[in-house]
Amino acid sequence: MRRFLRPGHDPVRERLKRDLFQFNKTVEHGFPHQPSALGYSPFLRLMAIGTRSGAIKLYGAPGVEFMGLHEENNTVMQIHFIPDQCQLVTLLDDNSLHLWSLKQHSGASELREEHRFTLKGPPGSPPSATQITAVLPHSSREVLYLGTESGNIFVVELPTFTVLEDRTITSEAVLQRVPEDYCNRRSCELVEALREHPKNPDQILIGYSRGLIVLWDLQNNKVTHHFLGSQQLENLYWQRDGSKFISCHCDGSYTQWPVSSDNRQPGPLENLVPYGPFPCKAISKIYWQTTKNGVPYIIFQGGMPRASYGDRHSISVVHGSQQTAFDFTSRVIDFFIIFSSEPTAEFDDPSAMVVLAEEELVVIDLKTAGWPAVHPPYLASLHCSAITCSHHVSNIPLKLWERIISAGSKQNIHYSNMPWPIDGGTNIAPDPPQRDLLLTGHEDGTVRFWDASGVCLHLLYKLSTVRVFLTDADPNDNMNTLGEDEWPPLRKVGTFDPYSDDPRLGIQKIYLCKYSGYLAVAGTAGQVLVMELNDEDAEHVVDHAEADLLQDQEGYRWKGHEKLKTRDGAVRFEAGFQPFVLVQCQPPAVVTSLALHSEWKLVAFGTSHGFGLFDHQQKRLVFVKCTLHPSDQLALEGPLSRVKSLKKSLRQSFRRIRRSRVSSRKRRGGSGNASEVQEANAKFDQDALQEMELAPVQRKIEARSAEDSFTGFVRTLYFADTFLRDSSRHCPSLWAGTNGGTVYAFCLRVPPAERRMDEPVRAEQAKEIQLMHRAPVVGILVLDGRSTPLPEPLEVAHDLSKSPDMQGSHQLLVVSEEQFKVFTLPKVSSKLKLKLTALEGCRVRKVTVANFGSCKTDDYSENDLAVLTNLGDIQIISLPFLKLQIRYPCIRKEDVSGIASCVFTKYGQGFYLISPSEFERFSLSTKWLVEPRCIVDMPEVTSNNHVHNKSGMENAARKS
Amino acid sequence: EFRRFSLERSKPGKFEEFYGLLQHVHKIPNVDVLVGYTDIHGDLLPINNDDNYHKAVSTANPLLRIFIQRKEDADYSAFGTDTMTRKKNVLSNVLRPDNHKKKPHIVISMPQDFRPVSSIIDVDILPETHRRVRLYKYGTDKPLGFYIRDGSSVRVTPHGLEKVPGIFISRLVPGGLAQSTGLLAVNDEVLEVNGIEVSGKSLDQVTDMMIANSRNLIITVRPANQRNNVVRNSRTSGSSGQSTESSLPSSTPNILANFLQEDDESDEEDIIIEDSGEPQQIPKAASTSESLESLTQIELLHESTQNGFLPSSEMNLNHSAGSITMEYEVRDPDHKSLEEDGTIITL
């Protein structure tokens, strides 16, 4: 349709567009949502994480990342690397097995699914007969042993997944020589664990759920040893030399068993309940690690006293007299130990423990005294407190970058110095083109600074605004209170803390000036903080001002939250960004827009009631402007939550019910029935959905009017040095756009630098534009005489931008949710427009100016508007002629939070949340593309051990 | 005095430019004048906006006869039906204003002074089963006053009948514009909003489109009650029946272009308050590249006539008319895939 309106496709332009624009989703940053499985290859030194949505992600050295997605989108239950291969096998909850391999393709490694397989029983057998419970990839790399619910163990050949039926280990065969009285008491039941003998690949240890453990000889197809456990078995682990193994049980105990050729049915060496004597929870996984000095590490998951610590997610490390129970804030999915994998090494000598919890990855350094945590270079938990806003700053000057890093390093002193232990693969991606910062604001009043230059989103520095305020929570509450005589010796680890002390602390808007190091941060209770970077700790008083945005308008009552109480007197701030000015809006409504001009030393802020301008040099409020319509009661009364749609509130109440159900179920049933809960949730969702569908959905069609609610809501603020009054003199100006389609322009008089402290900054309203379509104004921009957007403050002073053209006439671009309009300045007359909603039915959600460089020639670049619509499409619109260049579908339109979280960079990249904990990175540019590119080489197989294994296997095969 | 000059039919430009051209040609740059023309029926009709100017240019056959009157001594009653039967009268009035009889007459305001009202439009190009309604909100305090919902309707497709999702009017607010015009009813299926098909769009998208167009909302519906359809003469009704759906796509581009022009006029209404003064409507900046282009074109043509080369205006017009149809034929292929055997409507 559009094509009819725009005759004449310019082939030159079309070619240029191909050189400029290209859409790619390049990499996912952050922590995978709902992880469900963990795997590790000591050979490749790669870690794999599977999720409930069927994704698997491989991580090695920083920058080495691979991702794969199972077509079925089913939960990944188990991940096993094939020993000494670039291959891994995944087990999904539909009982299918998938073989993935890393293959090199045009210079980089790629993760590809090679085969899939579902174990089939004889006709008529129950599904449990083939339900896989344990997987053992044999060191020969030729077969997989699959333990099932029926107790049978199937053998399949790799990579073809051919079932070798004659080698199936049936439960009958195992039970043949088990004493009869033991047999009667417990049948085999399902296979809980399969472990290959560390020295003799012809023997595998089989553990059944009811407690029976047998050592099976693969060559002779018979049981060599029986270990008659009396407790429900959870897991098994061999000692390195193969002379002993350890089993852990459902009652919170673990047992050591000797393996020797003279006793074919030995009793346990030692049986211990580490957190007894009261009933304990199951120990679900255990490691036994030998060391040179003879004192082993025993590391186990769970086993806490049921009554008092049954709700903890813990992993205990016992090393001689040292014992620590690492306490995680979310459920532990799985963990592994990194130890010496050299087959010739005599001892395990564990170096690190890697724990995958539901919400974060925690790595503990086991070599350094005190077992400190290691700071992960990737897989950061973005959501350790919920993300409330984000802000991206491109091309950070080196000086500021270093200062932020140094401030951050002072915060990280409690981390271990150990180099990152998972270091497989080689990152061959080119160095990131520039230093980029992504700032995320969080619900708990913190701002996190992320290195967003490359593939690894890495936390540089964390800023907390909480210290400025008095909150109910005592800051000492969170300190680790680790007493000497505390039992069990719990120690909290990890950063995931979803509980916010006070929702008013939440960060809503961030603005960082990369040249001056000034940072403005605004929050939920109308607080605006201006900060400066200081390399030292300091104690000082924060200047405090109040901005009454209602300006004595009477008869209004704010029914929302109170403003935050401030701390009196000097406050101690750690090195980094330190606040020096606090402005509190009155009423304390959420700050909806923020702008900082570091050259003029002014900060502008807006809420649903109006906006104000603060001079942070003289620490003086310049003016406030109330934008409220007199009849707008809703905006007056309180937070926006009061007028959420019925649909939304319904959804929330459902969620609340569901949450309470889940938690009560958890309390009753423990952690083992997650799938049941999930099922119930799914059913509940369905019911709720049906209920929704019954109610007729209809939409009111009505023109917007001045009387609508929240028309005064300030959506955007913008500083510009332009021609506001006449075409001969330009002056500083502040522009504000509201929800009701009004644009205010204020003429500012900023005294020259030498008299900056002596004369006040003055402001006078010069223009007010009312867009008749009354759609919310989401962006304001002034284009200079060359139709280039005005540079950022201080950009010209730092020689990083051409100074704007002040000769030709300036133009004003106003972007509303529905239209783009260009007006002339200083006399406002409309020049151009693009009506988006009227033509396409979509509305503008986010808009930024982005610079696009050509991938063909270095000397061509242009500025365009990058626009995200409420349908999740990204459109690129040319400046200044407002012609649609290209459109890409990016986010599902149902993904409201994804669309709301989207942030564009100045060079045509962007980020949006695909889950509470993950940013998807995308690129619209052909030139700037940050994506993982890495190689995993097959390390050489050094030991002759494997050769021996191989021949052993062949023998076995020949015999059978 | 008479002047004769040529215009390019395909690019008539804007009325304002034409007006300027007239003033230039007659060398009366600062005189306010009324412009009128005679249409094919011989009626004297006014030219005072882009629409009727374009209409005038498009009906020229081959000559467009234009009358210019000084505004202060204009005779408004001259305009209207059957005016040309009194042509002599008019001409004498125009040419010799002193002869003007002082007979009192009923003053009828200019068409631009009439308040447009909601109406059924485009009856001649739509299938009989459809109705295109323009809701004029301008100047009334009445709310638009209707609701829309999701629903499903049955369509004729190459594979037989098929149930497809559609958008329907679900409720009319008593006293609202939609109800008071009586042109829309509950359960009418919404097919287009301001010339853009709604099929494939979600309820929320259609809602946004309607609100974005709420100043000049044109909805094409298939009324739930098909008994009140406008009945046309047999020639056009012959195409009804199976082609109801298919004739739509080919007609949309033309209509769309119309809408956009109307639209452009209708929303020059943004208001500016300078220095806390009086609110004013924001004017349209004159120097958009497009209008410049057309202006220069006219000037060029004008020049060529002065140079003694007088192109036959018939040729000129025919040629440009031809190029219009050509263009549409070239661009149609996209849409041809959609249509079965719908009547192809040319300009």
TrEMBL record, chain A:
Coiled coil: none
Positions of the Lethal giant larvae homologue domain: 273-372
A GO term, aspect molecular function: GTPase activator activity
Taxonomic source organism: Grus americana
Family, similarity comment: Belongs to the WD repeat L(2)GL family.
Keyword annotations of the record: Cell cycle, Cell division, Cytoplasm, Exocytosis, Phosphoprotein, Repeat, WD repeat
GO cellular component assignments: cortical actin cytoskeleton; plasma membrane
Protein name as catalogued: LLGL scribble cell polarity complex component 2
Stated role: Part of a complex with GPSM2/LGN, PRKCI/aPKC and PARD6B/Par-6, which may ensure the correct organization and orientation of bipolar spindles for normal cell division. This complex plays roles in the initial phase of the establishment of epithelial cell polarity.
Location of this chain's protein in the cell: Cytoplasm
Subunit structure: Interacts with GPSM2/LGN, PRKCI/aPKC and PARD6B/Par-6. The complex is enhanced during mitosis. Interacts with DCAF1.
Bias (Basic residues) ranges: 658-669
Region feature Disordered, mapped onto this chain: 658-680
One Pfam family it belongs to: WD40
Sequence ranges of the WD repeats: 69-110, 433-451
GO biological process: cell division; cortical actin cytoskeleton organization; establishment of spindle orientation; exocytosis; Golgi to plasma membrane transport; regulation of establishment or maintenance of cell polarity; regulation of Notch signaling pathway
UniProtKB/TrEMBL annotation, chain B:
Residue ranges constituting the PB1 domain according to the UniProt record: 1-71
UniProt key word Cell membrane: yes
BP terms from Gene Ontology: cell division; centrosome cycle; establishment or maintenance of cell polarity; regulation of cellular localization
Biased amino acid composition, Low complexity: 234-252
Region of interest (Disordered), residue spans: 228-253
PANTHER family: PAR-6-RELATED, PARTITIONING DEFECTIVE 6 HOMOLOG BETA
Coiled-coil region list: none
Keywords: Cell cycle, Cell division, Cell junction, Cell membrane, Cytoplasm, Membrane, Tight junction
InterPro entries associated with the record: PAR6_homolog, PB1-like, PB1_dom, PB1_Par6, PDZ, PDZ_sf
Predominant location: other
PROSITE patterns (UniProt xref): PB1 (PS51745), PDZ (PS50106)
Membrane-crossing residue ranges in chain numbering: none
Protein name in the entry: PAR6B protein
Record-linked SUPFAM superfamilies: CAD & PB1 domains, PDZ domain-like
